[in-house]
Amino acid sequence: MKKAHFDAISVRKEKKMSAPNYKRTLRACYLGYVTQAIVNNLSPLFFVIFREDFGISLSLLGTLVLINFATQLLIDMLAAKFGNRFTYRQLIVTAHFTNVAGLVCLAFLPMIMPPYAGLITATMLNAVGGGLAEVVVSPTVEALPSDCKEASMSLLHSFYCWGQLLTVAVTTLMLKLIGTSGWWIIPLLWALIPLYNAFNFMRVPIVEPEADEESGVMKHLFREKFFYIIMIMMLCGGAAELTVSQWSSLFAEKGLAISKFVGDLLGPGLFAVFMGTGRMLYGIFGSKINLRGALIGCSTLGVVCYIATAFVPNAFVSLIACAMTGLAVSLMWPGALSVASAEFPRGGTSMFAVLALCGDCGCSLGPWIAGMVSDAASGNNGIISFAAKFGIDAESAALRSGIAVGTVFPLLLLILLIATGKKKKNVKQAEA
């Protein structure tokens, strides 16, 4: 009896010792998305400083955003093609060390070489790390054994939002405490997070992927018209999200004449809160919600928020509309992925890689177009004189013009959702 009892305890201990602790892997992946939020959102918080200290124009600042996501786009393409030659661990550790290098370069390069060239170098390094993380972190979580993978994935995507909020709040507080002249210290402090997580990923258990056999599936997908519609939806979702997210700090301070401390907290800070809340709620109650209806509602809200941000003269109302855009865009990216998964259940990782490329393309184009339009509007006397009638100064009018152009992205997404919904309804009626 004693021997049997001892053997049972030994078996339980052996199983406990041999079973990997994937909770540590999940936490590392969540922190990986926080890192991605840091490298994507930190630089725009310094746009006012870059403009005043280094004399960088709005269009060049917008081009930094374009370079960031264009580089991520290139890395996504390369990783989709050659990523299976490396392990998940190798790719994700490399991503984190590259982000450490990018944040350190952001702190020092603008002051030891031509400022804009330094910013471009730091931006590209951070983009390489962010692009690699985007390709690897989600499938790493998807590969882990779990009874509720959808909840894990929803929570994973929400951590980007909470990371964005943390970046905005801590950076804003640090600038308040040390002053704008010490801005370069902040990227060095943020670099500690990817540095820690790089060593973290060296130790946690990871389920490596099997050989990819999906090339034939992609050929089939590219023959489907609806797949191209989903690709456009992804582009619109990325553009609608980043146009406001990347410009909200500068817009709040210069466009609405609000202090940087208050503007960052109520602009990009609240934007992140609303976006994270929307994704978490969908993760919890998604099974009870009609996805197409939710996407139509979000797109409609996005159009309203963009218009209110750009055209309402009252600074407070405009800022709240800017923040509420976070709720409007919260489902656009993950919702488009869910539509693709439902329509093409055998699409696999290659399909999601292509859709991520489309989303990153939107993330690149949206803020860049807004910056170009803002620069063009700043020299347009007609726009400036018209805005002056409503008490809006020239700089605010220019920034509002860039935001106004961004309305096209949620509007196009809304049109696509309504059009495809009617088409599916007509097909069902014809079949009946």
Ends: how far apart? 69 Å
**Helix segment count?**
19
- The rounded Rg comes to 23 Å
Query: What kind of oligomer do you see?
Result: single chain
- How many beta-strand elements? 0
Q: Based on CA inertia axes, which overall geometry fits?
A: globular
Brief overview:
By secondary structure, the protein is mainly α. It is 83% helix and 0% strand.
Topology, element by element:
Layout: H1 2-18, H2 22-41, H3 47-54, H4 58-82, H5 88-112, H6 115-143, H7 149-178, H8 185-190, H9 192-203, H10 215-221, H11 225-255, H12 260-285, H13 291-311, H14 315-329, H15 332-343, H16 348-378, H17 381-388, H18 394-405, H19 408-431
Helix pairs in contact: 2-6, 2-7, 2-9, 4-6, 4-16, 5-6, 5-9, 7-12, 11-12, 11-14, 11-15, 11-16, 11-18, 11-19, 12-14, 13-14, 13-15, 13-18, 13-19, 15-16, 16-18
Which characteristics define this entry?
single chain; 432 residues; mainly alpha; 19 helices
What does this molecule look like?
It is built from 19 helices and no strands. 48% of the residues are buried. It is 83% helix and 0% strand. Helix 7 packs antiparallel against helix 12, helix 11 packs antiparallel against helix 18 and helix 13 runs antiparallel to helix 14.
